[in-house]
Design a protein that fits this description.
heterodimer, A: alpha+beta, Alpha-Beta Plaits, five-stranded antiparallel sheet, 6 helices, B: 223 residues, mainly beta, Pectate Lyase C-like, two-stranded parallel sheet, 4 helices, 13 strands, globular
Chain lengths: 281, 223
């Protein structure tokens, strides 16, 4: 996978979030959305290049071409359009991809560039003033699809446990959980009875199919949710998984959580294997 | 290594061409070679030692001390490094500059940054006429007053002024604005010891031009 980080600032955090939420919308899975993206963290005004509050966004794709194309599209439709928003590179790499390099043509000849300390910024006149954007950002090798499953006695209890895990994991750098609220209910298996489908519901973990399939679920498990993690390195994802699982374990027996598992797809989906027992050591 | 320092020994009767005293031209020269360097290509050109006491060794970081308005073409065609002028300087400061930084702690003469292509010129005092003339890009800051015809025939680039000017008829008033780029620009001034470090505002009156040459440059007057 390839990943990049973009820093989005705005007049206040509310508008930085509006921009970042739009940019990371419909970006839950590379399979259907092209990229997986999410808000990594909030930044104070003293942490950003233009002295305004902001958020950092991580974006991942299966290849560099898709990442470049998706980044440009999302920048154009979500950041350029958002009042007061500005975008900056936030990852160092020899491999650079376009951030505002082509967006500048929206300026119709009135765009201007400014080279400050060796970094080129584009200033595009827009109706609320100027859209400021760094020319390029870095692209790095990254890892997607780290995951663990939370199995429990009820839907409410599993969801509450996942929320606790996500809250703890959000404090970590270099990772995002791209699904809604960081949690996914439609875990999948490879293949399907329908030839055109290359992935379908993970029936072994569907509680309503316990009697019909070779189920992985015991009688006391009524609901399963998955947390998927994308990160810049193996260690980042492993740490996030550890923090998330430990946050759930702290809840204790009364939380209704019976098991923590993970989808490994026969060990064939990707080169990286996150073995839960090793991560938790 | 201390900065390469040129201290003016006497007030020259004529204008002194300092275009060769840049980081580009002095790299790899010994102190003795620099002292004996001819200031121009003319047959009877004066040498550096005729006007300046020279000491220090860091050719990337040049200081002019005791300077005055007779010193022309300081920073001419420089593309990297830094020049600090502790005093006034003459005309064509940073002309044809391609990069690097020039800090003038006093006043500068006419044609500051003429045909400037890249780099930063900050003047704590006043600038003469035709400041930023024929500018192609880069940044000029004048903390004092700028003379007449600022931005004459500028194509691109930024002239940042602390005080109001009467712009050329072909440089149009685009109104007062908060520009996010100014924060980045002022942050980039922080390493330098100039009066620009004190400026906090990012609201400016923006003038654009020079339309006479279909230019897209700007003069920003801090409000």
């Amino acid at each position: 996978m390839r990943g990049t980080r973009v820093l989005i600032t705005a007049i206040n955090l509310k508008w930085a979030h509006h921009a970042a939420n739009a940019m990371t919308g419909f970006a839950t899975s590379v399979i259907g959305c092209g990229v997986e993206a999410g808000i990594e963290r909030e930044l104070n005004a003293d942490e950003t290049p233009d002295g305004r509050p902001g958020v950092s966004v991580l974006m991942f794709a299966m290849g560099s071409k898709v990442l470049m194309q998706q980044l440009e599209t999302r920048m154009g439709q979500c950041i350029l359009t958002c009042p007061t928003a500005a975008a900056f590179a936030d990852i160092e790499s020899d491999e650079q991809i376009n951030l505002g390099k082509n967006l500048r043509y929206f300026g119709d000849g009135f765009q201007t560039s400014k080279l400050i300390n060796g970094v080129r910024y584009w200033r595009i006149p827009v109706m609320d003033g100027e859209f400021l954007c760094e020319e390029t950002t870095g692209m790095v090798r990254a890892i997607g699809g780290g995951n663990f499953l939370v199995l429990g006695a009820s839907q409410e209890q599993v969801l509450a446990a996942c929320e606790t895990a996500i809250e703890a994991m959000h404090k970590l750098p270099n990772v995002i959980m791209p699904f809604p609220g960081g949690v996914v209910r439609s875990g999948s298996k490879v293949g399907s009875k329908y030839p055109k489908m290359f992935a379908s519901t993970n029936d072994a973990f569907c509680p309503t199919l316990k009697g019909l399939v070779n189920s992985e679920l015991s009688d006391d498990i009524e609901s399963v949710l998955e947390i998927v993690i994308d990160g810049l390195t193996f260690e980042d994802i492993a740490k996030a998984m550890k923090v998330g699982i430990e946050a759930i374990c702290v809840l204790g027996k009364t939380s209704g959580i019976k098991r923590i598992s993970a989808g490994n797809y026969g060990g064939k989906l990707g080169p990286h294997h996150f073995k839960l027992h090793e991560i938790l050591k | 290594m201390t900065a390469l320092t040129f201290t003016l020994k006497k007030n020259p009767q004529f204008k002194v061409n300092c275009s060769r005293l840049t980081p580009n031209d002095l790299t790899d020269l010994s102190l003795a070679q620099i002292r004996n360097l001819s200031l121009t290509n003319a047959k009877n050109s004066p040498k550096v030692v005729d006007y300046f006491e020279v000491y220090g060794g860091d050719t990337k970081n040049i200081i002019f001390k005791n300077s005055n308005t007779q010193l022309n073409f300081i920073g001419h065609r420089m593309s990297s490094g830094s020049i600090t002028i502790e005093g006034d300087c003459g005309d064509f400061l940073g002309a044809n500059m391609h990069g690097g930084n020039i800090i003038c702690e006093g006043n500068a003469g006419d044609r500051v940054g003429d045909q400037l292509r890249r780099g930063l010129i900050l003047i704590d005092g006043n600038a003469g006429d035709y400041c930023g003339s024929r500018m192609l890009a880069g940044t000029i800051g004048v903390h004092g007053n700028a003379g007449k015809y600022a931005g004459f025939a500028m194509k691109r680039g930024t002239i940042l002024l602390k005080n109001k000017i009467t712009p050329l008829a072909t440089i149009q008033d685009c109104g007062a604005h908060m520009l996010p780029i100014l924060t980045l620009l002022f942050n980039s001034f922080k390493p330098f010891s100039t009066k620009f470090k004190m400026i906090k505002a990012n609201r400016v009156q923006r003038f654009a031009g020079d339309l006479a040459v279909n230019g897209n440059g700007e003069i920003l007057v801090i409000l």
